[in-house]
Design a protein that fits this description.
By secondary structure, the protein is mostly beta strands. It contains no helices and nine strands. The radius of gyration is 13 Å and the shape is globular.
């Protein structure tokens, strides 16, 4: 499995060798993500097989990306269980790489 990183405003905010890759998105384990840069968002979306996604804004050195990170605090199908509490990032807002 390739190494995965997520960078925002020049700061690495997630770094791991173990992750889930689903529907073109890297889902980072919570322990690999710097959650101190998150601020809560009121935004939510729903996936019919994963459940309700909760969102966070990212703030690094005064620069903010609204609703840039999401996770599933509860999953609704067995197939989605590996994604529970893992974080994914919008690639238009955060630089996500697999190397």
């Amino acid at each position: 499995m390739p190494h995965a990183t997520a960078t925002f405003n020049g700061k690495t905010i997630a770094d791991t060798d173990t992750y889930e890759f689903v529907e073109g998105n890297v889902y980072f384990p919570p322990s690999s993500v710097d959650q101190t840069i998150f601020t809560p968002s009121e935004h939510h979306t729903y996936c019919p097989w994963k459940g309700q996604a909760s969102y966070n804004n990212i703030v690094v050195d005064g620069k903010e990306a609204k609703d840039a990170a999401w996770y599933y605090p509860e999953t609704i199908t067995e197939k989605a269980m590996p994604l529970k509490d893992f974080f994914a990032f919008y690639k238009t807002k955060v630089d996500v790489k697999m190397e």
